[in-house]
Write a structure and sequence with these properties.
Blueprint (H helix, E strand, L loop, with lengths): L7 E3 L3 E5 L6 E5 L12 H15 L1 H17 L4 H6 L9 H13 L17 H11 L11 H14 L9 H10 L6 H17 L2 H11 L1 E3 L2 E2 L1 H9 L8 H9 L14 H16 L9 H8 L32
Antiparallel strand pairs: 1-2, 2-3, 4-5
Length: about 325
């Protein structure tokens, strides 16, 4: 009988090995331990424990997730860019980049027209018209007009749509400089933080100067100097009261309305702003109705204003004060 070579018999008590030379079994006493099953990886075990903790503490988990998300979003706030605005004028804004992206996606070329002009060179009546049109309490609030916020919420809830905006000049500046025209809650939260940073870092005049030089006044037109040249063929320093009112009237919807076209929207907003300015003794209204009418209905230019969209009609059926906020 042949012995098999190098054959090994294993049991839980001993190992018997056959000597290949003499064929004599050699017994080695050993207490061989059964091979344990493979253990789960360390990382998988931790994930299981984490999942179990989350399922057991759902409210705490949700709260921690929200805090972590807000922390990450806070890191995207342009702190250093805001600090530089004290000595540097912004060359490009988030809204400009958004309009350029939209133009590229639509296959329509777009050129940006923007020329900086110091606040000291702008007519007082232009500054007053923009303040009464967009933020009547600009010089007294800390960046947010809480009364306007309350009124806007009540009206929007009542009409079940975004019928009224409550953004101050500083909030509009924050959105134009660093954010987008989106109306999602996260964007509004970031807008609120940037607004507080702007108010704490700069004077009201500096905020107003940046605002008037970067807001949108038409397709590719940014800032009051570019708007004045495009629509009235003159520098902003030479704008009349009527022209100032026209420019301020279209700020909420600069892509829908032109300041040099006598639409019902522009005429109505001009009258509202003129009444507000008169109530604050910013202007002296003429005593006769005929003279008052001449102030409000100076001949409007109808020539093409550079890159402004020519799709606007000369008549408008709007009978309510709109707040479309195309650019703001």
């Amino acid at each position: 009988m042949k012995w098999q070579r190098d054959c090994c018999y294993r049991n839980t008590w001993r190992v018997t090995t056959i000597d290949s030379n003499i064929g004599t079994p050699l017994i080695q006493n050993s207490s061989a331990v059964p091979v344990p099953p493979p253990s789960a990886p360390v990382g998988e075990g931790r994930l299981r424990r984490l999942f179990s903790w989350i399922m057991a503490h759902k409210v705490k988990s949700l709260l921690l997730l929200v805090i972590a998300f807000l922390f990450i979003e806070a890191l995207t706030i342009p702190y250093f860019s805001i600090a530089r605005l004290k000595t540097e004028n912004p060359r490009e804004t988030a809204l400009m980049r958004q309009r350029l992206d939209e133009a590229r996606q639509g296959g329509k070329p777009l050129g940006i027209s923007q020329h900086w002009v110091p606040l000291s060179r702008l007519p007082r009546q232009l500054i007053d018209a923009i303040i009464v049109a967009e933020d009547g309490t600009f010089y007294s609030h800390g960046g947010v007009d809480w009364f306007e916020v309350k009124e806007s919420i009540e009206k929007n809830v009542k009409e079940r749509r975004a019928a009224r905006g409550g953004s101050t000049i500083t909030q509009q500046l924050a959105k134009n400089l660093y954010l987008s025209t989106s109306k999602d809650p996260l964007r509004k939260a970031k807008e609120f933080i940037i607004t507080l940073l702007l108010e704490s870092a700069f004077s009201k005049d500096r905020i107003l100067e940046i605002y008037m030089n970067i807001i949108e006044w038409g397709r590719g037109i940014f800032g009051v100097e570019a708007a004045s040249q495009a629509y009235f063929r003159k520098p902003a320093s030479s704008l009349t009261l009527d022209e100032s009112l026209r420019l301020a009237a279209v700020i909420p919807s600069p892509l829908r309305h032109r300041p040099d076209v006598d639409t019902r929207y522009v005429i109505r907003r001009k009258q509202i702003m003129l009444d507000r300015m008169a109530a604050r003794n910013m202007v002296n209204l003429p005593t006769t109705a005929e003279t008052t009418s001449s102030v409000l209905t100076q001949p409007a230019r109808t020539t093409d204003a550079g890159d402004v969209s020519g799709s606007l009609q000369s008549t408008d059926t709007t009978d309510v004060e709109e707040d479309d906020s195309d650019g703001l």
